[in-house]
Amino acid sequence: MSLLSFLEQLGAADASAAPTARRGAMAQLGRTAAAALPAVLLTAATATPALAQRTGTVLDALQLALRVEWLQDEFYGQVLGATGLVPAAIQPDFTLIRAQQRQHIALLESYIRTSGGIVETRPRYDFTGSRGGASATRFPDVLTNTDTMLAVAQALEDLSTRVYTGQVALVASNNDLMDMVVRMFAVEGRHAAHLRQLRRQRGATVKHWISGTDNGGPLPPNTAGFYAGEDRVEQRVGALIERNVPSLLPATIGLTEADKLAAATEAFDEPLTAAAAAALIGLFAF
Amino acid sequence: MPEASSSSSPSTLNRRSFLASAGVATASLLVLAACEDDNPAPTTDPFIALAAGDPGVLSYFYLLERFSAEFYNKVLAAPPTDLTATDLAVLRDLYRHELAHRETLNQVFSANGLTLDVNLPALEFKYDSFTLTTRAGVLSAAQTIEDMGVAALAGAAKLVADANYLQLVLKIMAVEARHAAAIRDLNQAGSFAGADVVPQTGTEAGLNRVLTPTEVLAEFTAKYSPIKLRADNLPTS
Q1: In terms of CB atoms within 10 Å, which end of chain B has fewer, N or C?
Q2: CA A20 from chain center: how many Å?
Q3: Residue of chain A minimizing CA distance to B159
Q4: What distance in Å separates residue B222's CA from the closest CA in chain A?
Q5: B198 vs A90, A187, A238: nearest CB
Q6: pLDDT tens figures, B120-178
Q7: Which CATH superfamily is domain A3-207+272-281 in?
């Protein structure tokens, strides 16, 4: 793909989201000398524009990833700042997770800016879910109760993993960008498993992976949306071809039907659509 | 089910069976290296070269999933006595997940008429570089395998051309990252995203380590595979 068609794709119209930022990006791209563009853009793009444009643009994907990373950065910032909320033993873990999220943020923001895009304004956050008092609280003691805090943290890390699962493919047309985003994705998966481990240590019955819909998550019904669709047992193995995964597991190892169902749902994280992700982020960001 | 032992004289035996299968399987992608110019003696080791394009990349992922599935099979068939019930429950889940990945990838080949190298499903992996008789040995081996798997997927996801295959691979990758962190935390609490797998400084800070297929297959050739595995034909971008 040529540089020009990649730039077109980066700014391609997709009716709904952030038209202003996109118009700005295009205007700015017009003024940006090629020399100022990052190497990743210049080496851009060998594959399938159809893939990249399937449900949104590259810019949409990066901005959504950024919204999720911002959300988590803000969350860890607030909880680490709340006296006595984060047990001393896990403060280093939270500090590391937050540092990695901030590294992702710096890379994503820098990429968007140097590509001529405009980074959205970072929203305000309310982790009780009341949107600054505008609606009923969902997690009223999130900043005072360690278990509630960890429950919300887990939901946010699972959210992030599911968002990346869906968004990574949208940047596949650019090898260097894909390399960066897929490596962030792997780190988010690590964070999600660790939050689950921290909850296990406090007696929660939870695996490191999402099993079925995890019974609505750590605090149902308010966390149910984070796990909706995770109980999928059919996997797409080709265009319009799906396979029932439980039935693929070997009969020889003595699994019950329930075992097979659990394993088949745990073995794959399911992508969240951009709309579902935006709604979940919107529980806390306003 | 315990895996058949492949400990005694593996190279001779396997080489013979690979040569045999190369003779009969017309679709086989097994390639015999050319002999050194005028020296007819078969001094060059045979090898398996993974195919070009998506079939090659998917074969690579299949190989990784088979390797890890059989690792857990082997461990669970004779678990060290110092593994805890918690460890065993995690290892059992990992085994089932790897089987689900392996079998689903297998379906990608059959459903789309792609050729999976006939030698890959029969390749007898070697696990003798690991200590599988102690908890520490098993968790360390599992950590090596899971971290390698994540780095391999992170390094090769971009090589997949077909959008459906890519989405499947990404769904798998999310769970492999969970596996790696879970095992690392069992091995050493709080090591889920340690600096050895996610650099904390420099230009790669915050990004999971990546491995190319060439790097991973060299590791397999050195430690885990009875026959040389080559990535020459795989796409590189």
Answers
A1: N
A2: 23
A3: A175
A4: 26
A5: A187
A6: 999 999 999 999 999 999 999 999 999 999 999 999 999 999 999 999 999 999 999 99
A7: Ferritin, core subunit, four-helix bundle (1.20.1260.10)
